[in-house]
Structures are given as structure tokens and as C-alpha cells.
Amino acid sequence: MTNISKDVMKHANKPRDDTRKKEYAVVDEAWIKVLLTRGAFGTLATVHKQQPFLTPILFLYIEADHAIYFHGAHVGRMRANIAINPNVCFNVTEIGRILPYKEAAEFGLEYNSVTVFGRAEMIRDEKETERLLQGLMDKYAPHLKPNQDYIPAQPEDIKRTLVCKINIEDWTGKQLTDDEESTDPYYYPHLPVIRHPG
């Protein structure tokens, strides 16, 4: 710590929801809620003994609860980290086009992003677990109906599945869009979607 400059400490000690580039900050809570509702997946950050861990997760945002829910196993690193230290960070990001300019240093990328700070807790009630697991099914398979297209989670499934809740304390939104000055914007050819033939 003795060799860390005052400038570094100034930035490190800023509020966690502070955004350095104010021109990209989104303070519209409706926009943030929409992105959290539609986001395909997010990345959860936990920590143990000063070692951060990242876990990609499917998730469910429920506006009325001001919370994010996700599921996992009753045993494992993520569950253990949360049990020891419930402070977590969660991010959802969408990317758009790469924005080229004449100078490499000016290249940009369209994106929407929300970062959430909060505390995680484990849901203990089985009825609540069942409701939230069905909520995840409704989000990711809205065209399929329980008891018609698939058998919903059964009591034994619910007992072996852990559902966690992130109680949202702070969030930040960021967005960069094409300013129409870049030349020939294009999509990165390897977007994070696995495409199958046919």
C-alpha cells in the first residue's frame, strides 16, 4: 500500500456507484429496469479471502422486490462465498456495433450496461423457491406452458435447488451509442451466441 499514489487512492475511494465518464452514465431508472428485465444473462462477482470470483448466471429481475434472483447448487464455491461474505456485484451488458474511426485510439463500441451492488441471501422457503424457479422458466421459455409442454419443478427438484436473492442497494447504468461520426460501423462476428446449423 505504501507505493500507491494519491491519485489512485482518490479513484479507489470514490462511491461504488460513481461513473468516471459522466457522458455515458444513465440515471433513468426506467431504462435500467428494462435492461435488467430483458438481459439474457449476467455475471455475478463474489469474493473470499480477497480473491474475487466471477460466475455467469441466468437471472430473474423482479421490480416489485427491487431484487435479482438466480439459482444454483446447495454446494459449491458460489454458495460458500455468499454464505461467508454476502456482498456481491452483478453486471448485465449488451453490445452493439464496433465504431471505427480514422485513428485506432478513437474506436468505440455501442453498449448498454447495468452494474448492481447489493447483498445476497439464500431463499429458505420452498414455496418461494418454487415461485422463483417458475419465474425463471417463464422468462427463458415464455412460449412453453407448464403441465402442457413440460413438467414443472417437482418437490424433489425444489429441495436440491438453491435460489438466491440479491437485494439491490445501488446500481449504475451506462450506454454508448453511435454518434454518427464513425465510419462504417460493423458487428463483431463472434457475438456470445452459439448458433446451430438450420
Features:
198 residues, alpha+beta, Pnp Oxidase, Chain A, 9-stranded antiparallel sheet
CATH top-level class: Mainly Beta
Structural class: alpha+beta
Share in β-strands: 35-45%
Biggest pleated-sheet summary: 9 strands, antiparallel
What is the first-to-last residue Cα distance?
A: 56 Å
CATH fold field value: Pnp Oxidase, Chain A
As a percent range, the share of helical residues equals 10-25%
Q: Helix count? A: 5
Radius of gyration: 20 Å
Our count of domains comes out at 1
Net shape: globular
Uncertain spans: none
Second CATH tier, the architecture: Roll
SSE sequence, one letter per element:
HEHEEEEHEEHHEE
Question: How would you characterize the overall build of this protein?
Answer:
- The chain is an alpha+beta fold and 198 residues long.
- It has a single domain (20-178), classed as Electron Transport, Fmn-binding Protein, Chain A (Pnp Oxidase, Chain A, Roll), CATH 2.30.110.
- It is built from 5 helices and 9 strands; from the N terminus they run αβαββββαββααββ.
- The chain has helices at 6-12, 29-38, 77-84, 126-140, 155-159, and strands at residues 25-26, 42-48, 51-57, 60-62, 67-73, 87-99, 108-122, 161-176, 186-187.
- Strands 1, 2, 3, 4, 5, 6, 7, 8 and 9 form a 9-stranded antiparallel sheet that branches.
- A hairpin with a 4-residue loop joins β4 and β5 (67-73).
- It is globular and about 60 Å long.
Quickly describe the structure.
By secondary structure, the protein is an alpha+beta fold. It has one domain (20-178): Electron Transport, Fmn-binding Protein, Chain A (Pnp Oxidase, Chain A). The protein has helices at residues 6-12, 29-38, 77-84, 126-140, 155-159; strands spanning 25-26, 42-48, 51-57, 60-62, 67-73, 87-99, 108-122, 161-176, 186-187.
